[in-house]
Write a structure and sequence with these properties.
heterodimer, A: mainly alpha, 2 domains, 6 helices
Chain lengths: ~160, ~150
């Protein structure tokens, strides 16, 4: 039952309510990038990992809970073909994924936030910087996807 | 100690929803960025709309945060070049990987271990940028952004 995809008109407002509840509980934003920074900065002293690192750990735990409750937990390294844009071959696509991750980590820290911090939290608070960042990464994301699809012959 | 626990609980709830809505599936993100499926745009838009109304209600009613006791509030930031430059790079990586920092964590939890490659890259990128910032003396981009960026 849970395997069915939760429609956007349920998942979207639900995420909105969770973001508001987080604000009402600890007056903090929802942002994933900060979790990586928190983990990296405190890697040598895990007891100092705070709110942001715990939130990120929770995201992984939530994914696990979903997989278990929907009986879909079957660990594997298969990556979705992502519109056939990722190259064939495990080693090559792994390298591409690492490089994409580096671009995201470096870029998001430069921009001061990612899809969650800027895209959801910051825009909902009306922060001009977050609105600019969000428009920019959506623009860059769409341009990259369409460009790569064109290069790879339609990307079907 | 209670604040990190709250973070863990909310992270778990959000991660569950991300997985349930299949935002942890790179093909879903890909279809959105190829402008073939509007669902994720609607999802983010409705989340932002609800969060925007809720945050303003909390502020207007001068609510105090349940656990920390502080009055709900935030500051906003003026856009600067680093927001744009960083986001161009971020958007390109997002598009290639078909996932981003939050969903990839839920993806890994779900057992889609290919996400570990992306997460490895994320850590490397975050460390590189951090060391670059530390090496730069003077007024490099500042991140005194307590509420908006949500770092």
């Amino acid at each position: 039952m849970l395997l069915a995809r939760c429609p956007w008109y349920v998942a979207g407002p639900l995420l909105g309510v969770l973001i508001v509840a987080l604000r009402a509980t600890v007056n903090k934003p929802f942002g994933a990038l900060g979790g990586y920074i928190d983990l990296v900065d405190n890697a040598s002293a895990p007891r100092r990992i705070g709110f942001r690192g715990s939130l990120l750990a929770g995201l992984a735990l939530g994914g696990l809970l979903f997989a278990l409750s929907s009986r879909s937990f079957a660990p594997s390294f298969d990556y979705a073909r992502a519109g056939h844009l990722l190259p064939h071959g495990t080693a090559v696509s792994a390298a591409v994924l690492v490089i994409a991750g580096i671009a995201m980590g470096f870029g998001a820290r430069t921009a001061g936030g990612c899809t969650s911090g800027h895209g959801m939290s910051g825009t909902s608070l009306g922060s001009p910087a977050s609105i600019v960042a969000t428009l920019t990464f959506f623009g860059a994301g769409v341009a990259t996807a369409l460009g790569l699809a064109l290069l790879s012959g339609g990307g079907r | 100690m209670r604040v990190p626990l709250v973070g863990l609980l909310f992270g778990t709830a959000i991660g569950f929803v991300l997985a349930w809505a299949q935002l942890t599936d790179p093909d879903v993100i890909r279809r959105m960025l190829l402008l073939r499926e509007p669902d994720v745009f609607f999802l983010m838009g409705s989340a932002v709309a609800v969060a925007a109304v809720g945050a303003r209600l909390l502020k207007a009613t001068r609510t105090r945060a349940l656990v920390t006791g502080e009055r709900v509030g935030w500051s906003v930031e003026r856009p600067r070049a680093h927001h744009v430059l960083g986001s161009v790079l971020f958007g390109a990586g997002w598009s290639v990987a078909g996932t981003c920092p939050g969903p990839v964590a839920a993806m890994i939890g779900q057992g889609r271990l290919g996400g570990l490659f992306v997460a490895t890259g994320l850590v490397v990128g975050v460390v590189l940028r951090g060391s670059l910032e530390r090496r730069r003396a003077g007024p490099a981009p500042r991140y005194e952004t307590p509420a908006t960026a949500g770092l």
